[in-house]
Structure formats: C-alpha cells, structure tokens
Design goal:
It is a single chain. The protein has 13 helices and no strands. The protein has 290 residues and is an all-alpha fold. The radius of gyration is 21 Å and the shape is globular. The relative contact order is 0.20.
Length: 290
C-alpha cells in the first residue's frame, strides 16, 4: 500500500476515534473509496491503528492512568488482606476488615471494571455480526445517522455534576453497554458513550475523560482476541513500513483530537458533528445503492 494511503488511514483513525464520528465506519468507507485491501493482513493493520490511538490515550491521561494503576494494585492488596483477615477471624474474631473502596480513584477503577463487563459480553455476542457489517459499506452509512441522533440527544440533555464518587455502578453498566453496542461500524464509540454518560448525569468533562479511559481495556481485549487470527495473517514486507507510519500518525493525530475534545466540552457543540454524520451517512447510502 502506498505511504500516502497509510497516512490517510492513520489520520482518519486518529480523528474519528476521539471525535464523535466513528473511526470504524470511516475506515470501512475510506478503504472502499481508496481500494485498500490488505488481504489477511487487514486484521493486523486495524489492530495496530487502534493501538496507535491507545498510545494517544496513555500520553494524554498519563497522570490519571498512573493513579488508576496504583489504586488498582492497592485494591488487590486490600482484597487479599481481607481474605486473610476472614480466616484469622474464624479462630479469633475481632480483627477489623480493611475498607477497599476508600478513594475516588479506587471507585474510578471499579467503575471501569463494571463498564468493561457488558462491553466484553456484547462484543463477543456481536462479533460475527460486526465482521459481516465491516464488509458492507451501507452499514456504516446507516449507523452514522444513528450516531447523529445520539449526538443531538447529548446536546439537548441537561449536563450533570457526577464525578467518580457520585457515579453508581448501574451508571457504569449502562455506559459499558453503550460501548458494547458501538462495536458496529458507523456507531461512534466516543459519541455513544459520552451521550450515555451525560444522560446518566456525569459532569461533562469527566464524561469525555471517562469515555476515553474506559476504552483501554476494551481495545486491549479486542487486540488479544484478534491474536488467534494472527497465525493465518500474511503481511507483505513493504506493507510493514506503511503499517508503522499509519500507527504513528494515528497516535499523533489521536492525541491532538483528545486535546480538542477536552476543550470542546466547555459548551454544547456536538451539532456540527451530528450534521456531518448525517451528510456522510446519506452520501454513503446513496453511493452503495447507485
């Protein structure tokens, strides 16, 4: 694949992964227009693009992620300590248990875990449907219009004030379910989850941050599942360079997109994205029908 096509795909992935316009849908459409076909190596290419945007998340939110990892380890330590205390109390009762969820970041860790469960289950159940949908250009067209509807709802909804301590595990489950449904090409993961967060009463800035950070286990999980197909992947040597370039471009553009979205949440400005999704969706449907 020519370098310029790799750059285009990297830019599309970096922009559309974080802007609420669906990276998967745009990649399906752009690959059709550019005539990009990696053959069996397409799986590897898509995984690398997503890992590129994953790197952007780690860079943009490195402080939050570091705290989440530290608190996650402390949760495990306190959990196993409580198991030990349980057995000690069998023989000599009286030793108090440690409070496990005692900070906002520990609650944050648990919320992400709860959100990841429905995402994973739905992703597994819909994997065959999504695979078929990725081969039908009309599907992203329809789903982009659905994304536009979600964005209109997000603009109309009254922003909440919930931060990690106020967010319930039911809220986290709802947002995780929304992320699972967004595996369909054309349904924006960020747009869908941000809308779900806002409807659940999340603070707008926290809603965007939560949407991005909660994608980490989902992307890593999807990448691990795709590993089973790598034994049948054949990559032409000249395409390796294109893949690396596309991944780097996706990471850089993705980081800039995250910065833009964090500033965008100061006002209700999703209308432009919803109009864009409607126009691209309609154009894609017309393109496939004619």
């Amino acid at each position: 694949m020519p370098i310029w096509k790799a750059v285009v795909l990297g830019v599309i992935q970096g922009l559309a992964e974080f802007l609420p316009i669906s990276s998967s849908g745009h990649l399906v459409i752009i690959k059709e227009i550019l005539g990009v076909d990696f053959g069996s190596g397409g799986v590897f290419f898509d995984v690398m693009l997503h890992l590129g945007t994953l790197l952007a998340i780690f860079v943009a939110f490195h402080k939050d992620i570091a705290k989440l990892i530290v608190e996650g380890v402390h949760i495990l330590i306190d959990f196993f300590a409580n198991i030990g205390i349980f057995f000690q109390n069998i023989f000599r009762a009286g030793k108090p248990y440690r409070k496990v969820i005692k900070t906002a970041y520990r609650k944050y860790v648990m919320l992400i875990i709860v959100s990841t469960i429905p995402t994973g289950l739905i992703g597994l159940l819909m994997s065959d449907i999504v695979e078929v949908a990725n081969g039908m250009v009309i599907v992203p067209g329809i789903c982009l219009i659905i994304t536009a509807i979600f964005l209109i709802i997000a603009d109309l909804a009254t922003p909440g004030t919930k931060r990690p301590k106020e967010v319930s595990y039911i809220n986290a489950g709802i947002v995780g379910t929304a992320q699972g449904l967004a595996t369909m090409p054309g349904i924006s993961r960020s747009g869908t989850t941000i809308t779900a967060c806002i409807l659940c009463g999340f603070d707008k800035k926290f809603a965007v941050k939560y949407s991005f950070i909660m994608s980490i286990p989902a992307v890593l999980g999807a990448a691990v599942l795709e590993l089973k197909n790598f034994d049948s992947v054949t990559i032409v040597s000249k395409d390796v360079t294109s893949c690396i370039i596309a991944t780097v471009v996706a990471a850089v553009v993705g980081y800039l997109s995250i910065c833009f979205m964090m500033r965008l949440v100061r006002g209700r400005k999703y209308t432009g994205f919803s109009i864009y999704c409607i126009l691209v969706g309609i154009a894609t449907i017309i393109y496939t029908v004619l």
